[in-house]
Structure formats: C-alpha cells, structure tokens
Design brief:
Length: about 190
C-alpha cells in the first residue's frame, strides 16, 4: 500500500455535499420566491383597489352620489382580483360583491370634490407565506393604517376578514377624490 492511497482513505469524503447544500438552501430559496410572488399579488391588489376608489368617486360624481352605482363600480373593478378557483365570471362577481365595500366620505361642500373610500378583502393565495402576511405585525410601506395615502392592510379588519372567509385575507382600503368640474347653481 502506498502512502498516497493511505492519505486518500483518511481524507474528507465529498460525496453527498451537493445534496446537503441543496437541502439547506432550497427551503429558504422557496420561501423567498413565494414571498416575492405574494408581494407582487399584493401590489397588484393595491393598484386595483386604488383604481376602484377612483372609479367609484367618478361614478358618484356623475350619478349624484348614488350609493348603489358607486358600490357597483367599485365591485366591477375589484372582481378581477378575487380568487375564484377557476369557477368562472359569475363567481368572480359574487365574490367581488361580498368582498368589496364603498362609502361616500363627507368632507363638506367647501372642498368641491366627491370623496369615496373603497375597502376590499384581498385573499392571500400563495401557500406557506399567506399565513406570514396575514398577521398584523407584518407591515409594509404602502400598507399603512393611518387612513391617508397608501392606507389599508394588516390590521384588525384583515384578521376579521380571515375569520369570515376561512382563509388568510388582508383588507385594502383606498380613498379617492374627484373634483367637481362645475359650480352647483342650486346653492345660490
């Protein structure tokens, strides 16, 4: 037996090292990737809810504050972010009616604008990370709870929605105002 052969037998065995590295890094990489996917969906939900608030305010302006038309406009916009499970557009509309609410805010006649608040219960559909994002201790810059620009999100309303629907939800709230392009002649 040669000395080189004896040293090789005593040296480190590298077989299986790649499998151990994969086993350690894959769960973290998977969690990170799923988290990015859920954040992307949340951002889309945020953008759609913002547009729903604008659409509801515009509808309230053109329909003299008709609350039914205002709610319907917000629901029509939000129906595309409702997770339907592949059951078709009827279920999308029903889900949007249940999960989307709108109300007119009274800021007085001095502002000369119509202001509407839209709340949408957004379902977190990515497994594993949906539970992480549904808890109130997890806040992000664009999901504040102050009621101002970028409001919505991870508060008691989101937890109530999670209990109501049986799956993790966050409540996205947006406020939009549309200025009146004319003066009301009836106030003279």
């Amino acid at each position: 037996m040669t000395i080189g052969r004896k040293l090789r037998e005593l040296g480190p065995d590298c077989t299986g090292a790649a499998m151990v590295e994969f086993a350690l890094s894959f769960p973290l990489q998977l969690l990170f990737t799923l988290g990015i996917m859920q954040l992307s969906l949340l951002y889309i939900g945020h953008q759609v809810t913002t547009y729903a608030a604008f659409t509801a305010a515009r509808t309230a302006l053109t329909n003299d504050g008709n609350s039914t038309a205002t709610s319907r406009a917000a629901q029509d916009v939000c129906q595309w972010i409702v997770a339907s499970g592949g059951r078709g557009s009827f279920f999308l509309q029903q889900g949007a009616r249940q999960k989307t609410r709108s109300r007119m805010l009274d800021r007085g006649d001095r502002t000369g604008e119509v202001v509407v608040e839209v709340s949408h219960d957004f379902e977190l559909i990515i497994p594993v990370v949906n539970e992480i994002f549904a808890y109130p201790w997890k806040k992000f810059l664009w999901f504040g709870s102050d009621g101002g620009p970028g409001s919505g999100g991870f508060d008691a309303a989101g937890q109530a929605a999670s209990r109501r629907y049986g799956s993790p939800h966050v409540t996205l709230k947006k406020i939009a105002g549309v200025p009146k392009p004319w003066k009301d002649m009836r106030s003279r």
